[in-house]
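Each lists chain and fold; for instance:
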Amino acid sequence: MICVEVIQQQLVAAGMPGWAAMLPQQIEQALAAERHGDLGRWQHLLQQLPDVKAADIDLKADALRIGRAADIDEKTCSDIYQTLRTLQPWRKGPYEVFGISIDTEWRSDWKWQRLRSHIQPLSGRKVLDVGCGNGYHAWRMAGEGAELVIGIDPSLLFMSQFNAIRHFMADPPAVYFLPLGMEAVPGDLAAFDTVFSMGILYHRRAPMDHLLELRRCLRPGGELVLETLVIEGDENAVLVPQGRYAKMRNVWFIPSVKALKNWLQRCGYQDVQVVDVTPTSTREQRRTDWMAFESLQDFLHPSDANKTIEGYPAPLRAIAIARA
C-alpha cells in the first residue's frame, strides 16, 4: 500500500537521508490497526479493484482524468464505481476515472486556478504538500512538472482514496502520500523548493509555530504557498472563536490579511504577498452524491449568508506566497 523503500530512495536523493531513516517506523505506527477501525475494510476494497491501468491520464485537467470510458467494459466500470463509492466521503477533487465522474464536496480546481499563475513554476521542483487531503492538488503539482511531491495527511481514508486513484495509473509520477502529521516531519530539513500549506493554519493552536515549521522545510530562497481563512480588519485583527466556527471545533486563530502578513514576516519570510482573497461560496463547497454529509450551506446562518451559523463572519480565504 505504501512503497516505503521507494519513498526512502526518493528522500535520500532529495537530500533528506535523516527522514528516510525514520520513515519505516513512522509508517508502521501510522498504520497500526487501532488507529482506525475501518482501515482493514478500506485495504480490502483496494485489493478488490480491477487490475486495469491507464496510460492516458491528464493531470492538468480540472477534473483529473485517469483513462477513458472506452478503455474498460461495463462490468469493470461497475466494479470500479462501486468501490469508489464505498470510499466516501470524497471531499477534494474533482476526478474522472474511466469516465466515472467523482463530484467532490470541494471544487479544488478553483483554488488551483486562483494560485497557479502567482507561484514559482513547479517544473523540476521538490514539493511538500502539508495536509494534502486525498492528493488532488499533489497530482496537479505533478501535472505542472514537479520532480517530486510528498503529500502528508494523517487521514487513512484520504490515503485510501489517493491509493485508489494511483492504482489505475500505468506509469504514475513521483507523487507519494504519507499518512503523517506535520509533527512527523523532521525539523530543519531545508530541502524542499516549494511547500504548500492550504487549509491548515487555522487548525493550529500555535500558528506561529506552524509557519516556522514550514519555513524549516524550505531550502533558502524556497517558496511557501499558504492558503487560510482570514477576516477583514487591520493588522491587529484576529478572530478567536468561542467554541465552534462554521460548526468546526478545531478553529483557533483567524487573522486579518494584514495580520497574516505580519505573522509571516515575524517568522522570517521575505517578499510576502497576498495574491488572492475570495469568499467561499456554496458553489465551491457543497453537498454532492459523493459527499452526502453537511457542507457549507449548513454552516452558514439561515437568515444571513454573510455569517456563520454561530454569527461569525462567513468563510473568507486568502492565498499568500512568501520566500524563505
The longest helix spans residues 17-30. The mean pLDDT is 97. The chain has ten helices and 17 strands. The first strand starts at residue 57 and ends at 58.
